[in-house]
Write a structure and sequence with these properties.
The structure holds two protein chains of two kinds. Chain A is of the alpha+beta class. Helix content of chain A is about 20%, strand content about 40%. In chain A, a hairpin with a 3-residue loop joins β6 and β7. In chain B, the strands form four sheets. Chain B has a six-stranded mixed beta sheet. A six-stranded antiparallel beta barrel of chain B has the order 14-17-16-15-18-19. The N and C termini of chain B lie far apart (about 50 Å). Chain B is globular, with a radius of gyration of 21 Å. Chain B is an alpha+beta fold. Classes of the chains: A alpha+beta, B alpha+beta. Chains A and B meet through α1 and β6 of A and loops of B.
Amino acid sequence: MTELSGYRFTKTHEWVRRDGDEVVIGISEHAQAQLGDVIFLDLPEVGAELKVGQRFGTIESVKAASELYAPVSGCVIDVNRALGESPELVNNAPYTDGWVIRLENVDEGGSELLGEDEYRQLAGE
Amino acid sequence: MNRRVRIDPRQLDLPPDMSRRTPLYDRHVALHGSMVDFAGFCMPVRYSGIRDEHMAVRQRAGLFDISHMGEVRIRGEGALGSLQRLCANNVGRLRAGQALYGVMCNADGGIVDDIIVYRDGDNDFMVVINAACHDKDIAWMRQNLEPNTELCDESDEWSLLAVQGPGAVDVVTRLVDTDVSVLHPFHCVMGHISNSAVRVSRTGYTGEDGFELYVSNDSAARVWDAVLDAGSTVSLLPCGLGARDTLRLEAGLRLYGQDMDESTDPFSAALGWTVKLDKGVDCIGSTALRQLDPQHPPRRFVGLAFVGRDIPRHGQTVSSLGEAVGMVLSGTYSFSLGHGIATASIAGRVDPNAPLDVDIRGTLVAARIVPLPFYTRPLRSSLRNPHPATAIPQRE
């Protein structure tokens, strides 16, 4: 079970974790369970500027397609290329190897982030 | 995020209007099945994951609980006549122990449901119907019986398990006290598994070899356990409705309510091969069906293949050279083939060689028409040349 103390969550089931001046973003365990087997992700290019709350991509599973929303503002400096070949990483390791994008120049203004306990309550776990 | 209702098996107090359970509900929960409502039944959509389960069936074997399906016994001197009226296929050609796939049509030639009909005797048949059509089908059949025909709805009496995959024969042969390895497709035989009576039918909905096992509700859990146990030698997996759907779509098999409905004639669903208008008895809808040209039906049912992982979904518009010509019926990602696949209904006049596009959430994605089925299993010698049974194998 991943240690989640450094993780914060959005109401739309993304998580964000600080890594120095950068943040890493992915989707929660609850989200991947709801989605089922992930088939592919439609993600932004490196260099894209994201604003908090903005839709930045789509995650497609056998069941349905869902939108991904930026938890904070920032500039995309990395995208998890491994997900192209192995989208199931999102299902199997949503908090670690299944990370989705990495941002720099992060601005948390306007963000509504929840701690682990608050998020768990929201997700009904 | 997708707001699909998910019933948490850890909840102890379940709402009173919750879906019906099959006798295997506890097994599904114990195996960490993700439960959803399907046609009023609480069913597992997956256990370990749709991909794992799908590939298990293609490569080894999988076990499904499909007890939600309905079973209707039609009996009496008028039984054959009734079924020849209700079903567009030729029920009269069935011998005892044999089954056929067909459709029931309404007076306009539209499909009421697709069914499997088993013949158990001269005047004794069992009809298997879709769970989602249960009430409609029972009412429709009752309304259209010939004299001297008895209809018994046995849906609540039978549980149904499916064992599917290249390893299914190995597993089921070891369990049943009758040699089922020589059973031809669409034939059934009565036998026993763990002292429980079972109808073993060489049928399925996955495109693989396999069996469907009809057992009493009391025996369902015992037979389920026996299959899982025997199946461990081939690494058989329990499989849910998610994999059932990806498997059947790859195999080009229809899902009533999605691929066709009461407004679809069988020719427009590419099911003309199940319609036998010259069988000597007119089925309901035959007048309307005779007006249609099977070679040029009002709508064409086609398979579409996509280049990448784009997943087409029911209801998305299909266009040809900028003009809307049809709609996606069933769509999914094919785990076996590695790309998106879909069935679609397109206007009969569309040039089959013209390029097609599907509007996937605002983006036009190129699709090409491919023959069905999308996936065909490799030839297995045991089915092509079944050896005659010279002795009943000794039970271990």
